Amino acid sequence: MSSWASVLDQLAALDPAEFDPDSLSDEQVREVIPRTQLAINRLSALMTRAVAAGEARQVHTGDGMVSMKTWLTGHCRVSGREAVGLVRAGRRLRQLPELAAAYAEGAVTRAHVDAVTTAVTPARVAKAAEAGIDLAETDEILADAARALLPEETAQAVRRWVHGIDPTVTSTTTPACVVSSGWPARPAAASTPPATSTPWAPRPCTPHWKR
């Protein structure tokens, strides 16, 4: 924790005006943007974990707040919607260790995490368990998807998972591609997919997401 506290203190002390992107070469700009996104992902993961720990311990009550959501809106000045998303992600990532690890590594963005944690509700997890769908395998598959696909495509994968659990939920689109290495082989899905933990049938990968 001391190292992270030191990093956060250093970030808080930095003057953004001292960083001038216009002074960078084209190559440096191409390097700094992905590095910045990686840092944002990791810091977002840290924030989410801290929120989860704070909610579990009810630390907000020490400031007279009735919920972590109200504490976040009051102390961090985030919107109510963002506060709800942070609390939700913090709770559900504890059941999705593979996705949580990808987030902590900086391999996925908050948009990827929100796509999964919004849909993988406790009620759906329970329904999946009743159908024999293993949450650990679902976590692994969706984490792999998030690592390889854009957030919008990850959301499509999650909708496929939801449709497999509850066929009344419409799922009309599938991602353009899936991870080519390490992706569990599955038979092609029927027009009405069965309730399996496979979010979609593997398809040949198109290169547009390989950026």
Question: Spans of 5+ residues with little confidence (pLDDT < 50)?
Answer: 173-211
Mean pLDDT: 84
SSE-based structural type:
mainly alpha
- Extended strand count: 0
Element order: H for helix, E for strand: HHHHHHHHH
Proportion of residues in β-strands: under 5%
Specify the overall morphology.
globular
Q: What gyration radius follows from the Cα positions, in whole Å?
A: 19 Å
Helix content: 55-70%
Number of helices: 9
Between the first and last Cα atoms, what is the distance in angstroms?
Answer: 33 Å
Question: Can you summarize the main beta sheet?
Answer: none
Question: Your description of this structure?
Answer:
The protein has 211 residues and is an all-alpha fold. 58% of the residues lie in helices and 0% in strands. The longest helix has 31 residues, at 26-56. It is globular and about 55 Å long. The two termini are 33 Å apart. Mean pLDDT is 84; it is low at 173-211.
In short:
Helix content is 58%, strand content 0%. The chain has 211 residues and is mainly alpha-helical. Residues 173-211 have low confidence and may be disordered.
Features:
9 helices; 58% helix; disordered C terminus
Task: Write the topology of this structure.
Elements: H1 2-13, H2 26-56, H3 68-75, H4 80-93, H5 97-105, H6 110-119, H7 122-130, H8 135-148, H9 151-165
